[in-house]
Amino acid sequence: MTLAQPLWLLLLLLLPLLIRRHRREGNRGRLVVYMPDGTILQGGATWRAWLRRRLHRLRWVAIALLIVAMARPQRQWQEQKIEADAVDIVLSLDISPSMLSRDFDPDRLQVAKQVASDFVHKRPHDRIGLVAFSAEAFTQCPLTTDQRVVQQFVRDLAVGRLEDGTAVGMGLATAVNRLKDSPSKSKVVILLTDGENNAGYISPRQAAEIAKTLGIRVYTVGIGTDGVVMSPARRNPDGTYDYAPRSMEFDTELLEEIAAMTGGKFYRAWSEQELAGIYDEIDRLEKTKIEVTTIRKTTEFFYWLVGAALVLLLLEFLLRWTILRSTTV
């Protein structure tokens, strides 16, 4: 809410002076005889007398409303019309048990989910989808421009929904399948994993060849530290995991090859800060110039205030010359 001519509000400063002058002058030089009714003769003031003493307040409120109306309160609506195509992006995230390793706080998956959600928030004009994979892959969320929906699906990702394993090829192939019919000129897959490919009937190189043929760039992200880390060693019947120190192996060469084949880039994240920096770099690399036409619409509210002021003045007039009428001598 804004005011088109706010200087008119300075007139409100005069109201206390006018009210004070009105009270001081009062009924000077004028004798008013109020015709009593039966209630007065019985003793005690009537509601008419009480209301008559306060009737002038309606006039001051009406004047204040008219002054505010002169300042022209209004609300400006702004609409942005996007005329150019944005980027279609599919996030393909590893949800195998090794993503629960505790070299990140609290674990790799929680950090990956938070950073991915922040990345989605920064891309308001893109269509973004989500694929999850372990020993197999599935589409968690199709391409959509609704950021909140994608972020909710990211938050819902959990280990244990699929068979244990790491099918990098299946995760990439499923993401590519979501983009193959996309009309966008810029199509991107961000694939994040922490292990070697050891499952799936489509190899990572086959999936990369398909992506290359379709003009889809693949950014690969390897998450995790080197050496021995606390990682799930055994799954309990209730779905929880027992942890033990394990040496994690990582196929850096495969992810570098996938990125190189498709015109993307490989990144390695040893910490949450590095992972956030990787997503920030991808965000800068995948910017599409968008022509924006701004349409502004102004809604005026002064006429509501003028109407309210007229109603108050009319109400004062009617009350003063009807039920609150007095005889002046």
Q: Provide a count of the helices.
A: 11
The CATH class assignment of the largest domain is: Alpha Beta
Radius of gyration: 36 Å
Compute the number of strand runs: 13
Which structural class fits the helix and strand makeup?
alpha/beta
Structural domain count: 2
CATH topology of the largest domain: Rossmann fold
Strand content: 15-25%
**Strand-and-helix sequence, N→C?**
EHEHHHEEHEEHHEHEEEHEHEHE
Shape: elongated
Can you identify the CATH superfamily of the largest domain? von Willebrand factor, type A domain
Keywords:
single chain, 329 residues, alpha/beta, three-stranded antiparallel sheet, 11 helices, 13 strands, six-stranded mixed sheet, 25% strand, Rossmann fold
Per-chain topology:
Elements: E1 2-3, H1 15-25, E2 32-33, H2 38-41, H3 47-54, H4 57-70, E3 73-82, E4 88-94, H5 108-121, E5 127-133, E6 137-144, H6 147-156, H7 168-179, E7 187-193, H8 204-213, E8 216-223, E9 228-235, E10 241-247, H9 252-262, E11 266-269, H10 272-285, E12 292-300, H11 302-320, E13 327-328
Parallel strand pairs: 4-5, 4-7, 7-8, 8-11
Antiparallel strand pairs: 1-3, 2-13, 3-12, 5-6, 9-10
Helix pairs in contact: 4-11, 5-6, 5-10, 7-8, 8-9
